Amino acid sequence: MLKRIAPLLLAACLRSTAQQADVLYDEAKVPKFTLPDVFALRSGERMRDAKSWSSRRRPEILALYETEVFGKSPAKPAKLNFEVKAVEKGALGGKADRKIVTVYFGSTRGGPKMDLLIYLPAGAQKAVPVFLGLSFSGIHTVANDAGVPLAPRWVRGVQEPSPESSRGSAAQQWQVEKILAAGYGLATVDYNDIEPDFVGAMKHGIRPLFFKPGQTEPAADEWGAIAAWAWAASRAMDYLETDKEVDAQHVALFGHSRLGKTALWAGAQDTRFSIVIANESGEGGAAISRRNFGERTKDLNAHFPHWFDGNFKKYSAREDEMPFDSHMLLSLIAPRGLYVASAEDDRWSDPRGEFLGAANASPVWKLFSRKGIETMEMPPLHQPVGEHVRYHIRAGKHDVTAYDWEQYLKFAAAEWRR
Ligand code: GCU
Predict the structure, then answer these.
(1) Which atom of ligand 1 is nearest to the CA of 348?
(2) Domains of the chain: which residue ranges?
(3) Which CATH number fits the domain 2-21+31-416, given the four candidates 1.10.150.120, 3.30.1300.10, 3.40.50.1820, 3.10.450.710?
(4) Dihedrals φ, ψ of 110, to 5°?
(5) Which residue has the CA at smallest separation from atom 12 of ligand 1?
(6) 257 assigned to active site
(7) Greatest alpha-carbon span in the chain
(8) pLDDT by residue (tens digit) across 219-272?
(9) Helices in 72-224 by DSSP H: which ranges?
(10) Does ligand 1 have an atom closer than 6 angstroms to the CB of 258?
(11) Cα–chain-centroid distance for residue 217?
């Protein structure tokens, strides 16, 4: 427990504090609600085929999420600056080839940068599909690999060196050996490289790089931290597209919890991600907000005001006034592969709400003649449902486990063989 890193400790504290407060955990008290129609334009006209949905309704939904929820992000920089280093054949006891690639966000190598840690199956003969994921802590926590330098960490708003004991401390959540054994690679970035995750940390991250002269805060419809993390996931993809060892047509974007919300927003905007996986992404992610179950918009806005944009603040405890709900965010992934997952004890994230988000998004896949989830009945534990939209709930707490990764690997194998 002591080894757990600061952001997770903070999240755990907030979880339990909020859970003691007035939180709805009684299914019988979930209000009746009607979801906004994923097919109907704001004018009321309903889209009935994939082409018109894609060209007319999809941009409306994207614009709603952009202005009202996550905030607008800058375009891709004209020039990206990558530096490939720490290349090692036969890392992880011979199982992997590893490299670290630094992505510089500014025009010089002096400003903010992120380090992408990439493991590929050792000696792969052709370009391999890759899982890309942002992580909560330094790249050295992803696997027990003495060759990865110890990245610094943030403790109570101050950056300090990480202890050697933190090496591999998140390995359970990444399951790199399983990923490699399935023939895939893993690329990870510490989200703190992009913007550390606390109120007031914006100055340490990339957002100020894009301010207009004299600007000190993002406007109400400009990016919050989640959008900044998502934007950087696309910059990681920019690099992967240049790497001949990577099959960039087959990149799955994975994220857990707040980084699951991030993966959804990145995948919504950037259709280069062929699969998007949201592990226990909860409120502001896959969960239907109108259920009011577990975490609510007011909790997000109170505890994590830096995650979303200014406009999102007006929806605190006003979920029923939102011209969108999570099924619409999820629909933006169609017709690509979408995996939504929950954990039984993670009531704060509202497992049923996450399922219903995925189930109510699924009709959009049908427009593309692809099967999503074809039932509104939540499956039992450990019985994944759905085809190109898949969902599972497993026993246990808010976490990423070997079971979760086993399902994602099966899903990727099925998606990528089609
Ligand atoms: C908190 C927060 C959630 C978030 C989670 C996490 O619990 O309330 O919205 O998903 O942290 O990222 O771990």
Answers:
(1) 7
(2) 2-21+31-416
(3) 3.40.50.1820
(4) -90, -25
(5) 258
(6) yes
(7) 59
(8) 999 999 999 999 999 999 999 999 999 999 999 999 999 999 999 999 999 999
(9) 91-94, 171-174, 176-181
(10) yes
(11) 24
